[in-house]
């Protein structure tokens, strides 16, 4: 829930910076289904709606009542006018220049962001290796590009992240008790990657 709160506040700042009027509505756990649905669709002046996950489980099906024209975050899946959420779109744009002739692994491929990354890369003619819970994540070490969207702090270590990787994108977001935020990739693995590149020397 802390990750959700921080993410929502970041979105408010981003949209406000772009000049949009943002109404950040925080609903209590006790909100009725009718009020929740109304917040999604009732106001015709509202041009776009983002529902910050996870809402209470009993309300998740009501997200699908969102007007597709207002869904700017790909919440409606195949019914959405968007191919994926903004985070997935940003990741795919970062990865694309490095992916030509490369093997791409997406960790967390069945999640909301990860599935969007898979879809957008496929649109570009790239077929990533999907990895998720229950898979052998060490297979990421054989890829040329690694994307992690699992949201599991320090999930990937030096077993998975190697000096030969062209680019590594860590979209993990796990707030910790000390106020810091941890990504999916353990910091020691990125240091090992940097050290490995130094040992190999500059490309000629």
Layout: helices, strands, pairs:
Layout: H1 2-17, H2 33-41, H3 60-63, H4 86-95, E1 104-107, H5 112-123, E2 129-131, E3 145-148, E4 167-170, E5 174-175, E6 181-182, H6 187-200
Parallel strand pairs: 1-2, 1-3, 3-4
Antiparallel strand pairs: 5-6
Helix pairs in contact: 4-5
Description:
This protein has about 200 residues and is an alpha/beta fold. It is about 30% helix and about 10% strand. The chain contains 6 helices and 6 strands. It has helices at about 1-15, 35-40, 60-65, 85-95, 110-125, 185-200, and strands at about 105, 130, 145-150, 165-170, 175, 180. The strands form 2 sheets. It has a 4-stranded parallel sheet, covered by helices on one side. A two-stranded antiparallel ribbon has the order 5-6. A hairpin with a 5-residue loop joins strand 5 (about 175) and strand 6 (about 180). Helix 4 (about 85-95) packs across helix 5. The longest helix has 16 residues, at about 1-15. It is globular. The N and C termini lie far apart (about 50 Å). Residues about 200-204 have low confidence and may be disordered.
Question: What keyword list fits this structure?
Answer:
single chain, 204 residues, alpha/beta, 6 helices, globular, disordered C terminus
- Please identify the structural class as seen in this structure: alpha/beta
How far apart are the termini? 48 Å
Largest sheet, if any? 4 strands, parallel
Beta-strand percentage?
A: 5-15%
Radius of gyration from the alpha-carbon trace, in angstroms: 19 Å
Question: How many DSSP H or I helices?
Answer: 6
Overall morphology: globular
Number of DSSP strand runs = 6
Give the low-pLDDT segments.
198-204
The overall pLDDT average reads: 88
Helix content: 25-40%
Listing every helix as H and every strand as E from the N terminus to the C terminus, the arrangement reads HHHHEHEEEEEH
Strand order, largest beta sheet:
2-1-3-4
